[in-house]
Amino acid sequence: MKIKLSDYVAQFIAAQGVKHVFMVPGGGAMHLNDSFGHNRDFEFVCNHHEQASAMAAETYARISNNIGAALVTTGPGGTNAVTGVAGAWLDSTPCIFISGQVKRADLIGDLGVRQNGVQEVDIVSIVKPITKYAVVVMDPNLIRYHLEKAAYLARNGRPGPVWLDIPLDVQASMIETDKLISFSKSEIPVTANSNDLSIKAEQTIKLLNESSRPVIFLGNGVRLSNSIKDALTLLEKLKIPVLLTWPAMDMLPDDYELLVGRPGPVAPRGANFALQNSDLLISIGARLDIVVTGYAHDKFARAAKKVMVDIDKTELKKMKTTVDIPVCADAGAFIRELIKLAARISNVDRSPWINRCKEWKKKYPVVLPEYKEAKTVSTYTFTDTLSDLLTGDDVIIPCSSGAGIETFLLAYKAKKGQRVVNTTALGSMGNGLPAAIGGCLASGRKRTICVDGDGGMQFNIQELDTMVRLKLPIKLFILNNGGYASIRTSQSRYFNRLSGADSTSGLSLPNISNIASAYGLKVTKISDQSNLKKDIATVLETPGTVLCEIMTPFDEPRAPSMMSMQKPDGTMISKPLEDLWPFLEREEFLSNMIIPPLEE
Predict the structure, then answer these.
(1) Does any domain span residue 575?
(2) What is the per-residue pLDDT across 185-206, written as a single tens digit (0 to 9) for each?
(3) 572 band by pLDDT with thresholds 50, 70 and 90
(4) What is the pLDDT of residue 560?
(5) Which of 4, 285, 367, 581 has the most crowded CB, counting CB atoms within 10 A?
(6) If you write DSSP's letter for every residue of 442-488 in order, what string do you get?
(7) What strands, in cross-sheet order, belong to the sheet with 133-136?
(8) Mean pLDDT over residues 503-513, rounded?
(9) Do 155 and 246 belong together in one domain?
């Protein structure tokens, strides 16, 4: 059958089960724009910036458990999308990015010039380091091959983004579908699980049976391997305390009996006490980056034997601490192997350890009484109250960086059925609004809650129009702390002066409510905690797209958190994860340590 190549590309994307494609049209992609805009099997969503399209596609992929798709034009269209591509790369999110390019005759080729075609940029060379596959489609008869290969690589092994750059004349080509060359999976080296997977599982069970204080640490790799149900089965069989990474925070409800929390440099004390006092750490699908371990790997779970399961062998090799059983495997494959061996798990009485972990969680809540008694709106109290009011059917999109995201991820209590999607690896400001659009559409237009900062939302504020145009049920809570709060805190701590952090140091932010009103949103503001629950509930119950500005303290501390200390000689040292600021009285701190504390 003869078909226009751009139509073939649109049909291929539709065949992947994608129902929404995010795009900004441009002359360099005009044939693709036309084909995508008139395909009846998916909806094209026009954003106002390619960065927003890329970020929306990433969250769309994560909520839909499918591939995300974005279409951009040549030159600035492609370069604008790069930040979103980098986010998908770091968070292992399967996305396909398609760009238009100047016609083949106008390409730089071997001319040696910086640019030949109008708006020409070698986008493939730019994105190659942050994609699994990036190619310029020069031969129209290879379009099937490139599309199939890209989609396969995006989803398989460690997932990630791919990029196809299609010249204008290639887009317009007529092709015979029966003559197209196909891709074979046999071309790609199989990302095999460890050949000795069963042996590794047996070794893990042996360590477990010898352990009196084990913890299991689950990361987003479990979801990426479509193994959450298997993970729940495993947890029921292991019956040991559970820890989660931030990206995996919606895997278990906060009231799950054995869940202690989400450990790291910014974390509940209880989660860190459990991690640091453990004698066995079983980490599955968590890459154990600095956001979890802190800067000193040698202090991380230092008394524990460590089992680390990751599909990427380089993540295993990067560890600067001993990993007793490194397992290069799909998280789900290892989980199922452990389930097979469940009968070998000894019936060890770990009630003292389990009770201690429960006690830590109860004794050291993140939301303290004084936060609830404050007159201004504490971000902790706001998050706690919002958690209580949301349902298991809601989609929650925290922003990606800054004080707002850290306090939210500290205090939020996930419920069964909720999806909470955060992109903390790149931590890009401006992710919140486009992510909310992608997440809402992927969920089938469920109520979507986006919590963003007054600084971060400015980076993609134009997407307020996209929300209103699409009539999305998104409730935006904007934490107004007078600028870049986390930057202000760091600058004050290290330099005792500010640069570009707020209105006193060169930064200006417009009136959020006025701008939102101009875009056509329903707008409200909460300035104190006197009727906080009722005020938040009103926002949640209001139909359509709503923006609620939350007036928060300018200097609310981020706590508990790891703090570096300056020694008398001027050098800086990082405190271990168990010793978070505000520091406990030493007697109380020592009473929580089962393992020997480090000398200060």
Answers:
(1) no
(2) 999 987 666 668 999 999 999 9
(3) confident
(4) 96
(5) 285
(6) HTTS--EEEEEETTGGGGGTTHHHHHHHHT--EEEEEEE-SS-HHHH
(7) 43-46, 20-23, 68-72, 95-101, 161-167, 133-136
(8) 93
(9) no
pLDDT of residue 190: 74
Structural domain count, the chain: 3
Instruction: Return the minimum-mean-pLDDT range out of 350-354, 496-500, 543-547.
Output: 496-500
Which of 363, 379, 410 terminates a domain? The answer is: 363
Residue with tokens 């398609």: 98
My answer on whether 337 and 405 are in the same domain is: no
Residue 59's nearest CA partner among 316, 312, 438, 340 is: 438
Residue 186 CB partners (closer than 8 Å, separation 6+): none
Shared domain for 325 and 447, answered yes or no, is: no
Shared domain check, 213 and 180: no
Q: Is 328 helix (H, G, I), strand (E, B) or coil?
A: strand
Give the Cα separation of 156 and 510 in Å (integer): 44
- pLDDT for position 296: 84
Are 518 and 381 part of one and the same domain?
yes
Say how far residue 173 (Cα) sits from the centre of its chain.
38
Q: Measure the CA–CA gap between 22 and 20, rounded to whole angstroms.
A: 7
Q: Which of 156, 162, 151, 87 is nearest to 123 (CA)?
A: 162
Q: What is the mean pLDDT of residues 102-129?
A: 97
70 vs 295: which has the higher pLDDT: 70
Residue 558 within a domain: no
In the prediction, which pLDDT does 192 show?
A: 60
pTM above 0.90, yes or no: yes
**DSSP secondary structure letter of residue 575:** P
At 164-182, the pLDDT tens digits run: 999 999 999 999 999 999 9
Q: Could you tell me if 347 and 423 lie in one domain?
A: no
Mean pLDDT of 201-225: 98
Residue 600: pLDDT band with limits 50, 70, 90: low
What is the CB neighbour count within 10 angstroms for residue 422?
A: 28
Phi, psi of 13 (to 5 degrees): -60, -45
Domain span including residue 211: 197-363
**CA atoms within 13 A of residue 244's CA, in its CB half-sphere:** 26
Residues 344-358 have pLDDT tens digits of 999 999 999 999 999
Alpha-carbon gap, residue 142 to 389, rounded angstroms: 52
Both 171 and 232 in one domain: the answer is no
Q: Are 21 and 70 in contact (CB under 8 A)?
A: yes
Residue 40 lies in a domain: yes
Last residue of a domain, one of 319, 343, 363: 363
What CATH number should be reported for the domain holding residue 267? 3.40.50.1220
> Which residue matches tokens 């350890």?
353
Residue 517, domain CATH:
3.40.50.970
Q: Does residue 301 come out as left (phi exceeding 0), alpha (psi in the -120 to 50 range) or beta?
A: left
Examine the domain organization and report whether 218 and 284 are in the same domain.
Answer: yes
